[in-house]
Amino acid sequence: MYDSYGPRGGGGGGGIGTSETDPHNKCMGGRMWCVSDICGIICAVMTWLLVTYAEFVVLTVILGTANHPIYTTFNLLLFNVFAILALSAHARAMFTDPGAVPKGNATRENIQRMGLREGQVIFKCPKCCSIKPERAHHCSVCQRCIRKMDHHCPWVNNCVGENNQKFFVLFTLYIALLSLHGLFLGIYQFVICVKSEWRQCSSFSPPATVVLLLFLIFESLLFAIFTAVMFFTQVNAIWNDETGIEQLKKEQASWEKKSRWRSIQAVFGRFSLSWFSPFTTPPLPTKTHSYMYAV
């Protein structure tokens, strides 16, 4: 499946020798990672539109006509905090290089620079002509080998890997919390409207209010379940130091497994409030071989 090389092997010339010259999956003049997948782009845009819809219903239908200032202020702040954190984590997960190995770096020069011991074997991915690190997998959508790849998620239009798993976990967490909050507000408002026989419970007509609330409740319930399951799946994978692909394939661990606490720290860093912030960058791996890392 993969070409193997010993310490004297060669990968063929003409490839990209350093990460600085790797232009693949880059936009904004090479400053930002982005994947040109139409399905992923549609899913990512839909994510933002669904959050925007929930924001619209909560602001105009639910809290816009509430007569309790404390209730309105508290829920307005809480809902918007969850929304900002969720969308920020989504953007970071989408535009962060997940841990791509530069295309075409399997050159004779790079292999010799690795200083392999006699008899040591490395692997080359035939699809992107890259040296394939341990625990890396090739993504057919990103068309790259991704270090410690968990899976490719169309909702963030990116792979979940070594560099952006923290952002993806936070995205699922905050979308789940946002959805649960929206579900509570939607059901509570629906009960109030029924009790008041739809008089003065919304600035919209009763039929429009019913449609808006029901869609919000359905959307919130669906995404609360989906993202909560994904969140706990991710946490379990990190806890056991296994990626989703490794669990799916039931791969025997050829790597030295970290302790559970160190596995969590490898993704989130040392424990602090920054664990829960999508604005802080997680700890990056030590670049033993710089040409194995895209810039």
UniProtKB/TrEMBL annotation:
Catalytic activities: L-cysteinyl-[protein] + hexadecanoyl-CoA = S-hexadecanoyl-L-cysteinyl-[protein] + CoA
UniProt KW keywords: Acyltransferase, Membrane, Transferase, Transmembrane, Transmembrane helix
Family, as annotated: Belongs to the DHHC palmitoyltransferase family.
Ranges where the Palmitoyltransferase DHHC domain occurs: 125-250
Comment field on protein domains: The DHHC domain is required for palmitoyltransferase activity.
Pfam families assigned to the protein according to its UniProt record, in alphabetical order: DHHC
Gene Ontology molecular function terms on file: protein-cysteine S-palmitoyltransferase activity
Primary localization class, coarse: membrane
Name of the protein in question: Palmitoyltransferase
The EC number(s) this enzyme carries: 2.3.1.225
Localisation: Membrane
Topological relation to the membrane, as annotated: Multi-pass membrane protein
Transmembrane segments: 38-63, 69-87, 167-191, 211-232
Native source species: Petrolisthes cinctipes (Flat porcelain crab)
Lineage: Eukaryota, Metazoa, Ecdysozoa, Arthropoda, Crustacea
GO CC annotations on file: membrane
